[in-house]
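>> received
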Amino acid sequence: MNKLFIVVALCLLAVALYAQDYGYEAVGRPIQNGDVNMDGAVCFDDSVAIIFYLWGDGRELPCEDAGDVDRSGDIGVSDAILSLRHLFYGDFIQDCPIECYPVFIE
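>> returned
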């Protein structure tokens, strides 16, 4: 029960943080698979970004290719689940470079 509470609390925190509108600057390097928001690390907010993309307010992903975490060819709930399993259980995600470079959004 405590683990569920912690996960729900983290989800709510991530949703609140992701609800802000951020600009993205070009980093000049390939993006790692699963690093949807292109901050240099696969972290919790990448999973939240995928969830927002699928069911949220219609915001586009900064790098859609990185959102296909399981490399199935499309972005779905399995990508968000695999990203979360990678964070919490250490599940393997393919370490293939993504050719997606961010652009600055004003």
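>> Residues 2-18 form the longest helix (17 residues).
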